[in-house]
User: Which sequence fits this backbone?
């Protein structure tokens, strides 16, 4: 029996800055996981990934990352994705610094 | 110190020009990422978890104040005001923008630095004993050898597409501070009947399959070095497993074929190619050696040092812990700890870099070294200057007296930065250092090296730590395996795994249990952790680690 498809987002690194980005429903890239498009159907997720991979002038290394749905929107299910969302733990650098100042 | 000749300068400038054009083509869309990736890796540029990372070579860990100042300027202008010194004596910038990297490389070239061959399947930055040229136990300075190898291996046409990366380290002392037995090739300068030559070690390495290097040639005459190295790398280049990345390193080739067969093959190729080395390399070697001539040491009284040592307990503690014996009378080797308790191992702010550069210029014959243990060295300091140096270091958070102690931890960047990591390293190092500082125990514990890697690739050298910690991903949770009894010196040894790993919350208490067990087990206060472990073995530590834990749980 095929494994049940779990919710996903398309994530990648921005070409110039290298920081973590997520694909949104309106085909833009956001720095916030909470604004990412959550895909619950496998075919649709595959299509969105292909579309992301077709934007090499904007992003590098697009892939599908598992998320869990919560009141605050998508949440990472693995600690690696959690670190990608927040930035390094030793300094107030990366997303936690930049997004808090927005 | 070696200075670039016209050829070096032109070579680096040309590579930078090419890379600038490659970056432009990538940004314009003319190059895909698949096309661009090998080009950026050839120039030390990685894409990590949160950003790009530029790895800059510091050949054999040697810098002068101009270079260190430039590293600080680059950190301020294009990064976040700091740099991370690594176990390959390199510096890594964690936050460069792709479009800024060509300017960063041009800035490096202004002080004769680059990022070439800090990545990819090539011969990487050649490392050396960080006490080179200063150590009391040294037979000869290893840096001219390392520089000769750097020149020979840079853009070597036969060795640009090796089966895997290739790492060489050189020591000029019998006491190995360069971990040569954990390198693809380790070179030890030796003296036989008044003649200088090399002991060549091959097939060491850490990572997934840790191996201690084996002696390939016990005594190699000086003038045979490059043809012999070329023969060795070429034997592996042909035999090395290109079918399986995990079996591609020379340690596996040596293991699979046996050291005797490898030696036979190397000697055969060596005989064949030896005549093609006409002696130009030896002329060059002589010039390089002259460039590394020792500074003129001064003969002066050390009264200031003795007074401070007698009256200032903080200075005394620092002097006892952070100084090493210099070969010249009245001199010391100063080790500046980049391991302030709770700080990130190996990180220096741009301000700290400038402070160290200025100290080197003023008091240290303009020399600095980066150690594979992620600290900075002032190799030549007259003892009378030590009190003022200590006072300046203290003002800038650089006077932590912990070299060789439990808080002087090697830690790779781990999952806080590295795309390959399976768990974090830095917070574990921070917790251990902070805890043992609170306990005020580390001087009593004495010589104890903890080394932490955030994945199986072992950039944090965990296999050869007295206590090694390996961070893994176990079913989506960080899990830390412990090894004990590793040794990174001339008595190199891979540590023994204790058993099941510990969670991020449980690893610090586990380390505490090991340390308390050692304090109980040691014969007296002079018996180091390594000696105690060699005497009693793994079992009592296993009891402390696992059975005491169960006993507490049952209470």
Assistant:
């Amino acid at each position: 029996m095929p494994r049940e498809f779990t919710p996903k987002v398309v994530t990648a690194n921005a070409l110039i800055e290298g920081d973590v980005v997520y694909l949104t429903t309106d085909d833009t890239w956001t720095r916030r996981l909470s604004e990412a498009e959550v895909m619950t159907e496998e075919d649709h997720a595959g299509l969105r990934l292909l579309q992301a991979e077709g934007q090499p002038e904007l992003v590098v290394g697009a892939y599908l990352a598992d998320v869990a749905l919560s009141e605050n929107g998508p949440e990472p299910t693995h600690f690696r994705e959690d670190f990608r969302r927040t930035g390094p733990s030793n300094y107030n650098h990366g997303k936690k610094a930049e997004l808090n100042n927005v | 110190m070696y200075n670039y000749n016209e050829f070096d300068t032109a070579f680096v400038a040309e590579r930078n020009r090419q890379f600038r054009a490659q970056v432009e083509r990538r940004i314009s869309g003319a190059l895909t990422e698949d096309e661009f990736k090998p080009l950026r890796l050839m120039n030390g540029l990685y894409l990590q978890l949160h950003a790009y990372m530029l790895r800059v070579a510091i050949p054999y860990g040697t810098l002068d104040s101009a270079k260190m100042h430039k590293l600080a300027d680059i950190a301020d202008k294009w990064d976040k005001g700091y740099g991370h010194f690594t176990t390959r004596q390199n510096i890594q910038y964690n936050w460069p923008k792709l479009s800024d990297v060509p300017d960063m490389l041009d800035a490096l070239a202004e002080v004769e630095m680059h990022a070439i061959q800090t990545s990819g399947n090539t011969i990487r930055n050649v490392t050396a004993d960080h006490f080179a040229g200063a150590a009391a136990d040294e037979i000869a300075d290893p840096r001219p050898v390392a520089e000769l190898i750097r020149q020979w291996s840079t853009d070597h046409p036969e060795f640009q597409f090796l089966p895997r990366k290739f790492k060489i380290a050189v020591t000029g002392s019998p006491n190995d501070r360069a971990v040569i037995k954990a390198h693809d090739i380790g070179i030890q300068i030796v003296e036989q009947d008044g003649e200088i030559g090399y002991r060549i070690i091959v097939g060491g390495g850490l990572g997934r399959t840790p191996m201690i290097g084996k002696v390939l040639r016990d005594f190699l005459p000086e003038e045979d070095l490059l043809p012999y190295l070329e023969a060795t790398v070429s034997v592996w280049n042909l035999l090395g497993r290109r079918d399986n990345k995990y079996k591609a390193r020379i340690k596996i080739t040596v293991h699979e074929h046996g050291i005797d067969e490898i030696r036979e093959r190397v000697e055969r190729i060596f005989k064949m190619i030896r005549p093609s080395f006409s002696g130009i390399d030896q002329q060059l070697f002589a010039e390089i050696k002259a460039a590394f001539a020792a500074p003129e040491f001064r003969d002066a009284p050390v009264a200031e040092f003795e007074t401070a040592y007698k009256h200032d307990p903080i200075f005394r503690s620092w002097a006892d812990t952070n100084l090493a014996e210099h070969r010249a009378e009245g001199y010391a080797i100063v080790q500046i700890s980049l391991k302030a308790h709770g700080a990130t191992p190996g990180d220096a702010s741009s301000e700290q870099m400038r402070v160290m550069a200025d100290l080197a210029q003023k008091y240290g014959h303009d020399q600095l070294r980066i150690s594979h243990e992620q600290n900075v060295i002032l190799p030549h300091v007259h003892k009378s200057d030590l009190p003022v140096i200590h006072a300046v270091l203290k003002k800038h958070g650089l006077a932590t007296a912990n070299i060789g102690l439990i808080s002087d931890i090697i830690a790779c960047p781990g999952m806080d930065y590295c795309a390959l990591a399976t768990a974090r390293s830095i917070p574990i190092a921070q917790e251990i250092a902070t805890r043992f500082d609170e306990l005020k125990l580390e001087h009593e514990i004495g010589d104890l090296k903890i080394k932490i890697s955030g994945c199986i690739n072992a950039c944090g050298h965990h296999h050869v730590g007295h206590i090694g910690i390996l961070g893994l991903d176990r079913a989506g949770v960080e899990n830390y395996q412990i090894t004990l009894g590793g040794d990174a010196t001339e008595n190199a040894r891979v540590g023994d795994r204790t058993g099941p790993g510990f969670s991020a919350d449980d690893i610090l208490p586990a380390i505490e249990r090991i340390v308390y067990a050692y304090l109980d087990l040691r014969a007296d206060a002079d018996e180091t952790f390594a000696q105690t472990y060699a005497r009693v073995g793994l079992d009592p530590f296993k009891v402390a680690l696992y059975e005491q834990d169960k006993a507490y749980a049952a209470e």
Observations:
- Chain B has a mean pLDDT of 96.
- The first helix of chain B runs from residue 6 to 28.
- Chain B touches chain A through 30 residues (CB under 8 Å).
- Residues 6-110 of chain B form a domain with the Sulfite Reductase Hemoprotein; domain 2 fold (CATH 3.90.480.20).
